[in-house]
Amino acid sequence: MERSCITYYLEMTSASELQEKPQRYDLQIIECEVPQAEFNRFLYKLVGTPWEWGDLDCWSSSEWQALVEQECHRTWVAYHRGAIAGYYELYRPDGCNCEIRYFGLAPQFLGCGFGGALLSHAVRSAWEWQGTERVWVHTCTFDHPAALGNYQARGFRVFKQEDTQPSQ
C-alpha cells in the first residue's frame, strides 16, 4: 500500500535568519570546484537511496554532465576521517533564488550530529554566493524524520505545503 506524501517548501529571505550550528573539528566540508558528473551521481545514490530518491535514476551521463557543468550549479562534500559523510548541491538558475537542491548524510553518519552543521554550511554558502536574495529547499515525509526539524532549527520557514495522495 502506497503512503501519502507531504512536501514542505521552506525559505529564508535574509542571511541574518540563519541559526547556525557549529561545525565539528573532525568534519571537513569542501567544494567540488571541478565538476564531475559521475561523482554527483554517486553522491545522489549514496545519500538518497535509503530515502528512495529516484527522480534522477534514469538520467544518462550526459544529463548529469549538463546539470553539474552549469555555472548556476555548485556541489560541496563533507568528509569525516576521510570518508564521505554527506553532501549538498546549490542550484541558482535565475541568479537570485538559491535552491539547496540535494542535501543529506551518508547512512553510516546519520545520528552523528553532522546534519545541523552541514546545513548551516549550505545556507552560509548560498548567502555568500554573490547575488543570492533568497535560499529555499524542499523536503517531504519520505525523507529522514529529522529533516524538517533541522531546516526549521536553522531558520527556514514553510511557505508552501503539498499533500500527495497515493494513486488508487
UniProtKB/TrEMBL annotation:
PROSITE patterns: GNAT. It comes from the Bacteria. SUPFAM superfamilies: Acyl-CoA N-acyltransferases (Nat) (SSF55729). Pfam families: Acetyltransf_1. Keywords: Acyltransferase, Transferase. Residues 30-168 form the N-acetyltransferase domain. InterPro entries: Acyl_CoA_acyltransferase, Bact_Acetyltransf, GNAT_dom. The keyword Acyltransferase applies. The keyword Transferase applies. This is GNAT family N-acetyltransferase. It comes from Pseudomonas pudica.
